[in-house]
Amino acid sequence: MALISIRISHALVWTSWLLFLWSFFLPATNALNYPGTPPGTPLTGWQAFTSSACAVLNPIMWIVEPRVLLLLSFPSANLLMIIAPLMFRILREKSAIFAILLLPCAGVPWLMPKTLMGDFFVGFYIWNWSFVAMSLGCILASIAYSADDWDQIICRAGASVHKDSV
In angstroms, rounded to a whole number, what is the distance separating the alpha carbons of residues 62 and 133? Predict the structure, then answer.
């Protein structure tokens, strides 16, 4: 049973990571303006990422529009998701700890004011749900690896009892 759960968790982690990457090529939001596009044009995930990173890295924007500091969460969230498969590999049975970092990344955009976030498009929803799916994959892996460890401990204990009785 644990082996099946481990395989499902691996599939969920890699599928969510591929969905995350795919979301960068889809229309995501029209909250920011991108050079060469008319205002209100939906930006792809990649354009939204680079625009938010530029806005956050510009200290003048912090003074002119302090709400732009709320965008600080997005480059951080993207960085967490980029390293997620590596952390999943490293942490294995403790990957639920990483899920605790990822889940708020999915919730934060819904708490931000609509004036800052603009309209959401398909790329945003795929991006957002990839965090939820990655978190679920990490939690499932943590449970499955722990169960597998217990199965091995029980099997060893059973084998030693069997040897003693023979």
Answer: 33
Q: What is the pLDDT of residues 142-158, one digit of tens each?
A: 888 877 655 565 666 55
Q: Collect all residues with Cβ–Cβ distance below 8 Å to 46 and sequence separation of at least 6.
A: 24, 25
Angle at 124 between CA 69 and CA 64, to 5 degrees: 20
Judged by phi (left if over 0) then psi (alpha if -120 to 50, else beta), residue 58 lies in beta
Distances (CA, A) of 166 to 158, 159, 160, 163: 13, 11, 10, 5
Structure tokens at 147: 């169960």
User: How big is the chain by its Cα radius of gyration, in Å?
Assistant: 21
Residue-wise pLDDT tens digits, 99-154: 999 999 898 888 888 888 889 999 999 999 999 999 999 999 888 887 765 556 56
